Amino acid sequence: MGIDHRLSLIVHAGAGWVLWVLIGLSIVAVAIILERAISLMASRDDVRTMKEDLLAYLSNGDPAGAIERLETSSSVEARVLIAGLGCAEKGAAAAEERMASTSQLAKLSMEKNLSFLATVGSNAPFLGLLGTVIGIIRAFQPLDAAHGQVSSRLMAEVGEALLATALGLLVALPAVAFYNFFQRIIGSRLARADALGREVLAYMKAER
Questions:
Q1: C-alpha distance from residue 182 to each of 139, 161, 208 (Å)
Q2: Are 164 and 15 in contact (CB under 8 A)?
């Protein structure tokens, strides 16, 4: 089967299949957005209160109490601090490496499936444009059959072609917006975890 024949089959199929692909991508994107939103909301905590409690335990020389307090939280910040305090006896350098490792693993966990949103956001408009191109090419057939006169079939083909571009944009915009929103949340949490981790390192160095 030659390339010309394959292209003719794609054009003959029309832009309808492009619309269904975009609808499928939008459904998957919405599912990922909801899953990530629920996951990030479930793992948030009052970082200011956590910091006050942490400093209170450390100032009293009670790292075990600090760990018990942190274990009541499901936040990323708490997991990073627990990793550092858990190896306090090995020194500040070991604790710093352990917290850095935990922070990277937490970042990968929070970014789960976000690459799909980025891919949809960057490629959905081009997929919609492909549907528009196919629809316009198909529109030439009824235009030729009607000897250049506008017909209802021609308008239907053009309308479907333009709908593909619009749908591609509608799918891409929320995907990009939520991708950036989630990345901002993840970055903020990792930055807070790093700041609290430095409090732990300062305590360890002072104890040494």
A1: 41, 33, 39
A2: yes
Q: Give the model's confidence band at 131: pLDDT under 50 very low, under 70 low, under 90 confident, else very high.
A: confident
- Any idea which residue has 């957005």 for tokens? 33
Alpha carbons 55 and 203: distance in angstroms, whole number: 9
DSSP 111: T
**Do 141 and 17 form a contact (C-beta atoms < 8 A)?**
no
Buried/exposed 142-166: b ≥16 CB within 10 Å, e otherwise: bbeeeeeeeeeebeebbebbbbbbe
Q: What are phi and psi of 159, to 5 degrees?
A: -60, -40
Distance CA 125, CA 46 (A): 39
Indicate the SS3 state at residue 5. Answer: helix
Contact 22, 164 (CB under 8 A): yes
Taking every pair of Cα atoms in the chain, the longest distance, rounded to a whole number of angstroms, is 90
Q: What gap in Å lies between CA 138 and CA 154, rounded to an integer?
A: 9
**Helix and strand numbers, DSSP H then E, in the chain:** 8, 0
Rounded Cα distance between 51 and 100, Å, is: 18
- 20-47 residue pLDDT tens: 889 999 999 999 999 999 999 988 888 8
CA proximity to 138, closest of 8, 10, 11 = 11
What is the residue extent of each domain of the chain? 13-207
Nearest to 127 by CA among 21, 16, 4, 14: 21
pLDDT in tens, 148-157: 555 556 566 6
